[in-house]
Every structure is written in C-alpha cells, then in structure tokens.
C-alpha cells in the first residue's frame, strides 16, 4: 500500500500528500437524532471539505525504545510505570504511554518535529477515501487491522496491517495526542485551509482510539471521532506520533 510518489523525509516517516478532503462524520450513529443524544457525540460535524499542505508523519506511534533515547539526552523524568527508569521488560517496541501533552510536544521538538494538527491526523488516517468510517472503508475492524478490545494493554507497533499511506496503528493501540485545543463547535467555523484548532481551551484533542476500546456500536475507533484530555493527563491508553515539515 501507499503512494508511489511518497518519499520519506527520513527513516520512520512517511509522506502525506497535501490536498482537499472531507473532514468529519457524514453518517449518523444509532439514536443520533433523539433529543437526549449527547452533544459531545456531535462534535465531529458538520463534515466539510478542507485542505492541508503536505507533510511527513511518523509511520508509527513513538515507542518506548525511542522515548528512552530522548530521556537520556534531555534528562527528563520517565513514565511512572518504568521501574527504576527502565523500559518494562519486553516492551521496547510498544508505544510509550503515560506521557502528557507537554512530554509529547517536547519529544517531537527534540526530534525536529511537532505534534500533528487534528486536521493533519484525520487526513493521514483517511488516506484517499472520502467519508469512510475507517481507513480501510466501512467494515468494522478486525484483529488483523487494529489493536482494540483488549484488557492487557498496548501491543508492539506495526504488528497489524498498514494504512493506505503506510502508517501503522493509526486506528487503535493507543490514543494519540494532537496539537489542537478541543472546541466542541470548532468544525462549524474552522478555516478551510490548514485549520489549527481554537486559540485556547481546557483540553487537548486525542484521536484514533486505543487497545481498550471496542468497535461498533462505539465510535471511538473511527477516523472522525474526537476525544480529549487535559494537557497534564497521563494514561496507559494515550501515546503519540510526530510530524515533520515538508520541504
């Protein structure tokens, strides 16, 4: 899979072509028209055409192994579950978790990048599909396509099928921090070109779902679902990946 013209900036990153795409949910969930249906579940509408510039995205969520190199270079504190500052046994290739938004931002800057905007994340997730629930279409996830509905924690990165653009675990495994502040009604007024989210807020946006989430009828694993957490939140279900500027 992947674009023939795609060329990574460096090992571990893939090219995401710029262009126009349909961002947001253009289908209804069961009961969505009922008056008691929660407003936060409607925050991925209206679906609108927007445009993003090309960029490079990390092919996988940042692993414990890569994060350990960052900690060694910067002398930052390791995640709290690392006993004596060491990666849990056998989890070098698992995504780093229990990292705050600030931790993730610092890592990406150290690597010469940044966190993706919410729009960039969704462009990457969708590939070239228009309006599909998942990167592969509208069929519910299988264990071959994503890591989800588990009780044992995240799995090693790139152990499932890659997406159209060549990304690993863009759905499932761990929720991924994005750069944006969360705004429930932001999709109604967002710019059509490179939207970057509200100027301020209480929460940062998370995308992609995690190992703990279930598939239908839950929406968490879809390309359009928006979750959020406080900037200081640390959770075993939250990790991140970085993007870099296209020259």
Overall description:
The chain has helices at residues 64-74, 101-110, 118-126, 186-189; strands at residues 13-16, 19-23, 48-52, 55-58, 175-181, 204-207, 227-229, 238-239, 243-245. The chain has one domain (1-25, 50-247): paralog of FGE (formylglycine-generating enzyme). With 247 residues, the chain is of the alpha+beta class. 14% of the residues lie in helices and 15% in strands. It is built from four helices and nine strands. Residues 1-5 have low confidence and may be disordered. It has a four-stranded mixed β-sheet with strand order 7-6-5-8. A three-stranded antiparallel β-sheet has the order 1-4-9. The two termini are 24 Å apart.
Strand order of the largest sheet: 7-6-5-8
CATH architecture: Alpha-Beta Complex
Overall spatial form: globular
| Low-pLDDT segments | 1-5
Question: How many strands appear in the DSSP assignment?
Answer: 9
Fraction of residues in H or I helices = 10-25%
The name of the CATH topology is paralog of FGE (formylglycine-generating enzyme)
| CATH C-level category | Alpha Beta
Could you spell the SSE succession in H and E letters? EEEEHHHEHEEEE
Biggest β-sheet: count, sense, barrel?
4 strands, mixed
User: Which structural class best describes the helix and strand composition?
Assistant: alpha+beta
Number of domains: 1
> What is the tally of helical segments?
4
What is the CATH homology-level superfamily? paralog of FGE (formylglycine-generating enzyme)
